[in-house]
Amino acid sequence: MAEELAEILQSFELSSKELQVTDVGREELAIGIKECQCSLIGKIMGEKIANYTGVKNFVSTAWSYPRDLKVAELGPNLFQFILPGENDRDRVMNGGPWILDNQVLVMNRWYEGIEDDETAFNLAPIWVQVWNLPVHWMSKEAGRRIGAMFHQVRDVIIPQTGGKEGRHLKLSVLMDIAQPLLRGTTVKVAGSTKWASFKYERCPDFCYKCGRIGHSEKTCDKPMLVGGGKRDNQYENVSNKCQYGSFEDAEF
After folding, report:
1. pTM of structure
2. Would you say residue 235 has pLDDT above 70?
3. Does CATH number 3.30.70.330 belong to domain 123-250?
């Protein structure tokens, strides 16, 4: 914020009156701060700019028409949701994922400076399916151990029925969408190993080039992630087969 102010001041030739500093006391902000403390801030992660009316209608329906909901647009794809009821705020924060037009609406509780915090909207809820495990490896405890790869495991479900592809685990997780989507992991039990592949339910738009949610390969500034045993998100400036594709999307 200080750098932005310095840049603005340097770009103008200000008059003596414009150079004056206006002091505002904290007590004069009390009403605004109190209202903000009853609000959530949401950012839609994607290249498509959302329509205010569309966002308001979406959250009203998705959140079961919370009482006295107010929506304010703070900037492109950035919104404030005033929810006076604490239970409503908790329900929204513990729910999701909130997917609007194939883009994820990431929520966070308001705090001073959230609009300028580039990391404020890195964590998004998403459902992950874990495939290729032997049936006797499917337990909630195993799901939580596998889910430790993500930022947080919120729930583990073992579907009682499977389709023609077999059975799988379902994990509700918080994931860091600033990082590439995880495609799977090697699971080892008593010397026996299996590759467990991940599929994402209602997966938001993501880049097939770098695997990150929120932009497409057309606007991606990352070199392509390539095969050949590359690990730990190493990249090379070479043309090769994309390491991501529609196979990350799960049917459910």
Report:
1. 0.81
2. no
3. yes
